[in-house]
Design a protein that fits this description.
The chain is mainly alpha-helical and 430 residues long. Helices cover 44% and strands 7% of the residues. Helix 14 packs antiparallel against helix 15. The protein is globular and about 65 Å long. The structure holds zinc ion (ZN).
Length: 430
Amino acid sequence: MTAASRGAPAHQYEPLACKSCLYTTDHPLGLVLDADGLCSGCRIHEEKDRLDWDARWKRLEALVSPYRVASGKTYDCIVPVTGGNDSYYIVHLVKERLGLNPLLVTYNKYFNTPLGIRNLANLRIRFNCDILTQNVNPVSVRKITRTTLREFGSIYWPCLAGQTVFPVQTAVRYRIPLIIWGAHQGLEQVGMFSHEHEVEMTRRYRKDHDLMGYEADDLLSIFDTLSEDDIWQYRYPDDASLHGVGVRGIYLGNYVRWDPKAQHEAMVARHDYQGARFERTFDTYDHVDCFNFMGLHDHIKWLKHGYSKVTDHACREIRHRRLTRQHALAMVKHYEGQPVPDTDLFCEWLGMQAEGLAQVLDAHRGSRVWRRLDDRTWVRQREAASNAECSEPAPAAIAGIERELRFEATHSRYQEQARRYIVIGKGFPD
Ligand SMILES: [Zn+2]
């Protein structure tokens, strides 16, 4: 008996799929299809080949010009960084092309890989920048993680909250009004805005999308396990403080034709950024600083939404025309079912048994995605696109596609060190 013949669920819901990329109208950030069956993310991506990027760069130069500090006694702007993602390219644009003097800020997420610590240290040395690190005490971080995991199935709330609030708090505290971010996720993935809207950082987007609808004070009022002492470090500055300093956060992706793969390759060649191979995606550059983003956090995305980060990477590569739709489906099919690495490190860090973690995660499986057959067995409500449209790819076929794509990785995220979180990274070399 197949899963389908056990009886269809009462609410049969069919999301619509984009004809070009692999996203559907189920995307958690929201996505619409046009009359041609193309999604808003693909349509907005077309702007990258249409806009006059020289003219947009000049708009950026004019925008940042009033923030240059003539005295040289303070910083021109704040740049949030990590030991992964687009950090090198952002600092490259800000310091080497715009000629600004940034204060780098980084939030310690505790799940640091040795490679991430190495990349971050190399970043500040190469670019000769000052850096501020926020270390929230580990007792509170664990308490919040336990609560957000149990209540809404997120192990990453403190990381996302810290990364998005510490730069804003620093802007207020140091009276540095301008914060410069990389690309806007809502624009890049689902075309929530046009590049020409030049959207800026908002508290609202942070709460609704980055933080899954919960700001720090919401955690306090809803869940009685947390106290004021635990959450105050994650509190967004109030409007009076923000307006008093004139804080604004801009996105470089509105002024530069954003292409993470090309940008990372340039930073590998020019500034010795280092990537690493992952178990669950082909991209070797994005999240090398974290043990969990491409591991347990990615697995949770799969349980909640029915797709994982490899789909995001595949969609991006389709849009940049480096991957055909058929090859993208094969990559997704190959990677999304891979085992989840390093969950033992997370359980040890949080003081939780693997069995307990599995139970909590089952409670947060998306009801549109999964149906429970018995205690241990779940089936998908409907076939994933990669199953419906693509047969099981042979390892040689995957290797061939990857050779053509050329995501390089010469290093390991463990850096020949023990496989453990670098809770506080001192630097590299020490
Ligand atoms: Zn699309």
